[in-house]
Amino acid sequence: MSRIQATLQTRDGHCPALLFTPAESGGPWPGVILCMDAFGIRPTMEKMAQCLADDGYAVLLPDLFYRLAPLKPLEPAQVFADPSLMQELMRRVGSLDRDRKLADAAAFLDFLDHRPEVAGPRYGIVGYCMGGNVALTVAGGFPERFAAIASFHGGHLASEAPDSPHRFVAGIRGRVYVGVAVEDPSFPPEQQERLEAALREAGVPHVIETYPGARHGFAVPDNPSYQPAAAERHWQVLFDLLRSTLRA
Q1: Under a CB-based contact definition with an 8 Å cutoff, are residues 158 and 185 in contact?
Q2: DSSP letter, residue 25
Q3: With b meaning 16 or more CB within 10 Å and e meaning fewer, what string describes 42-69?
Q4: Which residue of 61, 75, 98, 99 has the fewest C-beta atoms within 10 A of its own C-beta?
Q5: CB of 64 closer than 8 Å to CB of 35
Q6: pLDDT on residue 1
Q7: Which residues pair with 21 in a beta bridge?
Q8: Which of 152, 109, 116, 104 is nearest to 132 (CA)?
Q9: Distance, CA of 215 to CA of 138 (rounded, Å)
Q10: Distance of alpha carbon 102 from the chain centroid
Q11: How many alpha carbons lie under 13 Å from residue 168 in its C-beta half-sphere?
Q12: Interior angle at CA 61, CA 155 and CA 165, nearest 5
């Protein structure tokens, strides 16, 4: 395992980040940005980043909540059992608007562009829950920089909000994959239809599919709704997407 700690200069401050690379020597490797869920950077997210790196990528895991530092990551099971912690979770999510997501992404791309371990100039981006929204938002803001975009149980991807990600998909040059949880109030059927229509109209290659029996958070091991079969399927889908785009 190879893990590099870094601090990225952004428009708004200093963002701690980790860069994971495969255990074996070599490189440079195709770059991937992993957008964390709302519970923050913690061992589970780090293990997922390393799992992805071990398939042959340089994976950047930035702390998207650096503006609120110092913060401790939240335990998913505790959040769902405590209304005050849920309120804190939503406060953190609400600290990120489209402008901030894109400003941060500019710094992330600049970092990857200048790392000897990373092969560019086009990258992959994947996100979970809140991070799925961030991934699609960033792809819309930098439409030519990403060859692969993936969201797993991402929320509010096609809401009524003026900065909803689906409003900015025109021009995306990569392939989009959206893995959907069943009965997910953060991404209900009407939003799925709206996102599908926006991607189709923009001519963006995409797949939107529901994981039967899987609930919001199904791919993240420390989430109470973790579903091993769905998580394994998500890894295979993600590996196939990245291999066919970044390593084609």
Answers
A1: no
A2: S
A3: bebbbebbbebbbbbbbbbbbbbbbbee
A4: 99
A5: yes
A6: 55
A7: 2
A8: 152
A9: 25
A10: 13
A11: 22
A12: 30
Q: Is the dihedral of CA 128, 131, 133, 138 positive or negative?
A: negative
Quote the tokens at residue 133: 């929204």
Report pLDDT for 25. Answer: 74
Residue 53: per-residue pLDDT: 97
Q: Give 243's contacts (C-beta < 8 A, 6+ positions apart).
A: 55
CB-CB contact of 147 with 175 (8 Å): yes
The answer to whether the predicted template modeling score (pTM) of the entire model surpasses 0.90 is yes
Q: How many CB atoms lie within 10 A of CB 163?
A: 14
Number of Cβ atoms within 10 Å of the Cβ of 83: 9
Could you identify the residue written with the tokens 């890894």? 235
Say how far apart CA 142 and CA 113 lie, in whole Å. Answer: 14
Are the C-beta atoms of 181 and 217 separated by less than 8 Å?
yes
Whether the CB-CB separation of 129 and 154 falls below 8 Å is answered with: yes
Q: Which alpha helices (H) appear in the chain, and where do they start and end?
A: 43-53, 76-81, 83-94, 98-113, 130-141, 189-202, 228-246
Contact yes or no for 123/112 (Cβ under 8 A): yes
Please tell me the predicted confidence (pLDDT) of residue 24. 80
- Residues near 44 by Cβ (< 8 Å), separated by ≥ 6? 220, 221, 222
Per-residue model confidence as pLDDT tens digits over 115-170: 999 999 999 999 999 999 999 999 999 999 999 999 999 999 999 999 999 999 99
Helix (H, G, I), strand (E, B) or coil at 56: coil
Mean pLDDT, rounded, of the chain: 97
- Give the residue ranges of the chain where pLDDT is below 50: none
Per-residue tokens: 215: 């609930």
